[in-house]
Design goal:
Helices cover 39% and strands 0% of the residues. It is an all-alpha fold.
């Protein structure tokens, strides 16, 4: 988390695969309201990798580990955010909804 506010990734982070520790830091950054575009720059990754972490398709269990780490780093901030998993919001209308125009 030491590189939280850098605009470009340091050479040690650039062009390397994400790790479990990175996934924990990405969860914590989400709860601290750091923008996804800043996370993309920091970890030099595609935005889809962030959503794979937030949906826990990659690094399952990282959210639970991140929540424990967050509680130890920032005691008292837990009620200020939703620690639940990421939920996709579909753009298509629900199939049970009637269309307004035939």
């Amino acid at each position: 988390m030491a590189i939280a506010f850098l605009n470009e990734p340091p050479p040690s982070v650039a062009r390397r695969p994400l790790t479990d520790d990175d996934a924990v830091d990405i969860w914590i950054a989400r709860w601290l309201k750091i923008r996804p575009v800043d996370l993309q720059r920091r970890y030099a990754c595609d935005p889809r990798r962030l959503y794979e972490i937030w949906e826990e398709t990659r690094f399952p269990g990282s959210r639970k580990r991140a929540l424990e780490e967050f509680q130890s780093r920032f005691p008292g901030l837990e009620p200020r955010f939703d620690p639940g998993p990421h939920r996709r919001i579909p753009l298509a209308p629900h199939p049970d909804q009637l269309s307004l125009f035939p």
